[in-house]
Design a protein that fits this description.
Blueprint: H1 3-17, E1 22-23, H2 26-31, E2 49-51, H3 56-69, E3 73-76, E4 93-96, E5 103-107, E6 112-115, H4 121-130, E7 133-134, H5 146-151, H6 159-162, E8 169-175, E9 181-185, H7 205-208, E10 220-227, E11 229-230, E12 255-261, H8 265-277, E13 283-286, H9 289-296, H10 300-309, H11 311-315, E14 319-325, H12 330-346, E15 350-351, H13 354-364, E16 385-386, E17 391-392, H14 394-410, E18 423-427, E19 432-436, E20 438-439, H15 445-465, H16 479-483, H17 490-501
Bound molecules: flavin-adenine dinucleotide (FAD).
Flavin-adenine dinucleotide (FAD) binds next to strand 3, helix 5 and strand 10.
Length: 519
C-alpha cells in the first residue's frame, strides 16, 4: 500500500462522511475479507477502507472519491453472497450499508414500502404483516437485506404466486458507478409516486439487474420502493418454542400444506403444471430429498443420523410441496383444497404418511413463507456449490436436474451424499420454472478446487454445445460474459452499459461484466 496515497484518500473520505464512519484498521479490514468458499478458490484480499455512509448524498460522495482515485468499491447488503462481496483486488473500499437501515415508509393503501439497503426481509415482512401485507423471502434467509435480494436474485419461496423480485421494484434512487444519481420508475416522474415500476421510456430495472444479478457492478442503490402483496396471515408470524426447536403453524383456515409423492420427476413436473393451470396455491415447489434434511435438522448430528436412516429418501423423493393460501377467504381455501385433491387423484399422487408430515411440516415448511433455516444448507460441510441455474420452463428443468444429479453422483465423494439434488420451482403460476442443483461438498482446498475446475469444464462444454436454458454456476464474475454467448450475446450489451456508466471500472470489478478501463 502506498502510504501517501492511502492518507490522501483517508482524509478525503473522512471529510466527506465523518471520521467515525471510515475505518482502515487491520482488525476491521480482516472482518470484511472472507467468502464462504475455502481459501485457495477465490483468494479474496483484505480491503483498504470500510465506509459507512448514511444516505444517497454520502454514498455519492464516497463513490466520487473512488472515481477520483481509482479505488474499486463494493456495496454490501448483509453480505451473505460473500463470493461477490469479498474484495478480489488490492486497495478495495467497502461501502457497508449498516447505517442505512430504515423502512422509510409503508403505504398500506397503495401496497408498497420504501426501504434503505440494510433493511432485512424479516423487518419488512414483520411490518407488512401487521398491515395485512406480505413480501417473499429468498431461501438465503429473511435476515438478508431486502434491497440486496431485489437487486440480485429475488427468487423466493412464494414465486409461484408473486413472481421474481425484479418485478417487485417500483422505484429506485441509484448512485451510478461514476457518482451520478439516477431515479427510476415512479420517482423519475415525481418524488411522491411510488406505485409503478416503469418510468417514461425504457424500463431501467433491466439495466440494473436483468433477470438476475448486478452484483454491485453497476453502482449502489440507496433507496427503493418495493411492492407488497396481500397476506391472509396473522399480524405476527407464528413461532413457538426455543431456538433451534422452533415450530411455526399458520392458521389452518387460511393456509394448508400438502406434500405429494410421485414415482418420477416427470410425473412430479406434470402435477406442477396441472396445479399451475388451475391457478391455485401460494407455494409450489419440487424440493430435492436433501432439502428436507437441510432445512429440518437442528444439528449436524441429527442431520447425518436422519440421513443414514433414509427417512426422507424413502418418503419425499420426487414429492411436490404445495401450500394453499386462502387469500380472500376461508371459502377460497376450501375451493382450492377441492381442486388440489382432484388433481392429486388424476395425477395418481400419494400424500406422504401423516407421521412424516407431522415430523417435517411444523418445524420446516413455513420457511418457504418467511425463511430462517436457509443458511442451514451450508452446515453439513460449511459450503455448497451449484450446477446450472436455468430460468426457463418446469419442463426444461427436468433434464437439467437429471444431468445435474448424474454429475453429482459421479463426483461423490468429495461431493457429500445427497441423493439427486433436483430442485424445481414454479414462478408466475407455472409460466416459468427454475431448476437448481445445489450440493454440499468437502470444504478443503484440494477437493473444492478440483470440483470448481470440473464445473468450469462443464461450463465450457455447455458453451460448445450451446445448451440453452441453463448455465452455471451463478457465482458472479465471468458468468454474464460466458452465458451471454448462449443467450443472444446479451453480455455485449451489458458490457457496453458497464463501460458507459463505469468509465474508471471501479464498481466491484469484474462484476457485472469484465471490461477494461480506457485510459
Ligand atoms: C445458503 C444460501 C441460499 C440462498 N438462496 C437463495 C434463494 O433461494 N433465492 C435468492 O434469490 N437468493 C438466494 N441466495 C443468494 C443471496 O444471498 C440472496 O439473494 C440474498 O437475498 C442477497 O442479500 P444479501 O444481503 O446476502 O446480499 P449481499 O451479499 O450483501 O449482496 C449481493 C450482491 O449484491 C450487491 N449489492 C448489495 N446491496 C446492493 C445495493 N444496495 N446496490 C447495488 N448492489 C448491491 C453486492 O455487492 C453483492 O454483489 C442464497 C444464498 C445462500 C448463501
Amino acid at each position: 500500500m502506498d502510504k501517501e496515497r492511502h492518507a490522501i484518500i483517508l482524509e478525503a473520505l473522512q471529510s466527506a462522511i465523518g471520521k467515525e464512519n471510515v475505518e482502515d484498521s487491520l482488525s476491521v479490514m480482516m472482518a470484511y475479507h472472507r467468502d464462504w468458499l475455502p481459501p485457495g478458490v477465490l483468494n479474496p484480499t483484505v480491503p483498504e477502507f470500510v465506509t459507512l455512509p448514511d444516505g444517497t448524498e454520502q454514498t455519492q460522495q464516497v463513490i466520487k472519491i473512488c472515481n477520483r482515485y481509482n479505488v474499486p468499491f463494493i456495496p454490501l447488503g448483509s453480505s451473505q453472497w460473500s463470493v461477490t462481496t469479498a474484495p478480489n483486488r488490492p486497495g478495495t473500499l467497502i461501502i457497508d450499508s449498516k447505517r442505512m437501515n430504515d423502512i422509510v415508509e409503508i403505504d398500506e393503501k397503495n401496497m408498497y414500502a420504501v426501504i434503505e439497503p440494510y433493511v432485512t426481509m424479516a423487518q419488512v415482512h414483520a411490518e407488512a404483516n401487521k398491515r395485512g401485507l406480505y413480501l417473499g423471502s429468498p431461501e438465503a434467509s429473511a435476515q438478508a437485506s431486502a434491497m440486496a435480494g431485489h437487486v440480485f436474485q429475488g427468487m423466493w419461496g412464494v414465486g409461484h404466486r408473486l413472481g421474481v423480485g425484479h418485478r417487485n421494484i417500483l422505484a429506485m434512487e441509484w448512485v451510478l458507478p461514476n457518482g451520478e444519481i439516477l431515479q427510476t420508475g415512479s420517482w423519475s416522474n415525481s418524488e411522491k409516486t411510488r406505485f409503478f415500476g416503469e418510468g417514461p421510456g425504457t424500463d431501467l430495472r433491466g439495466m440494473l439487474r436483468g433477470l438476475a444479478g448486478a452484483l454491485g457492478g453497476i453502482g449502489m442503490v440507496t433507496k427503493m420502493a418495493i411492492k407488497l402483496h396481500p397476506y391472509p396471515g396473522p399480524k405476527a408470524f407464528p413461532c413457538e418454542g426455543m431456538i433451534p426447536n422452533h415450530t411455526s403453524t399458520l392458521p389452518p383456515e387460511r393456509f394448508q400444506w400438502y406434500i405429494i409423492k410421485y414415482p418420477t420427476l416427470e410425473k412430479a413436473a406434470h402435477a406442477m403444471y396441472e396445479i399451475s393451470k388451475a391457478e391455485i396455491a401460494g407455494v409450489l415447489q419440487k424440493w430435492p430429498t436433501v432439502y428436507y434434511n437441510w432445512w429440518w435438522a437442528n444439528s449436524n448430528e441429527e442431520y447425518w443420523e436422519t440421513w443414514k436412516e433414509g427417512v426422507w429418501q424413502k418418503h419425499v423423493k420426487y414429492a411436490v410441496a404445495v401450500c394453499l393460501w386462502g387469500f380472500t377467504s376461508e371459502k377460497q381455501l376450501d375451493y382450492e383444497k377441492g381442486v388440489l385433491e382432484d388433481i392429486i387423484e388424476e395425477t395418481k399422487g400419494k400424500l406422504i404418511p401423516q407421521e412424516i408430515y407431522d415430523k417435517w411440516v411444523p418445524r420446516t415448511a413455513n420457511n418457504w413463507i418467511r425463511d430462517t433455516n436457509g443458511s442451514r444448507m451450508m452446515r453439513p460441510s460449511g459450503t455448497f456449490a451449484a450446477l446450472r441455474l436455468p430460468f426457463d420452463t418446469i419442463h426444461s428443468s427436468i433434464d437439467v436436474c437429471r444431468v445435474g444429479a448424474d454429475w453429482v453422483e459421479k463426483f461423490s465423494p468429495p461431493i457429500l451424499d445427497c441423493d439427486a439434488p433436483d430442485w424445481i420451482s414454479s414462478y408466475d403460476f407455472g409460466h416459468f420454472g427454475a431448476a437448481e442443483t445445489d450440493f454440499p461438498l468437502e470444504k478443503n482446498v484440494d477437493d473444492l478446487g478440483d470440483i470448481m475446475q470440473k464445473l468450469m469444464g462443464m461450463m465450457k462444454e455447455d458453451l460448445t454445445h450451446r445448451i440453452e436454458g441453463g448455465f452455471g454456476p451463478f457465482l458472479g464474475g465471468a458468468y454474464h460474459a460466458m452465458a451471454g454467448s448462449i443467450f443472444y450475446n446479451y453480455g455485449k450489451l451489458l458490457g457496453g452499459i458497464k463501460k458507459a456508466m463505469d468509465p474508471n471500472v471501479v464498481s466491484n470489478p469484474p462484476q457485472n461484466y469484465p471490461v477494461e478501463r480506457e485510459d
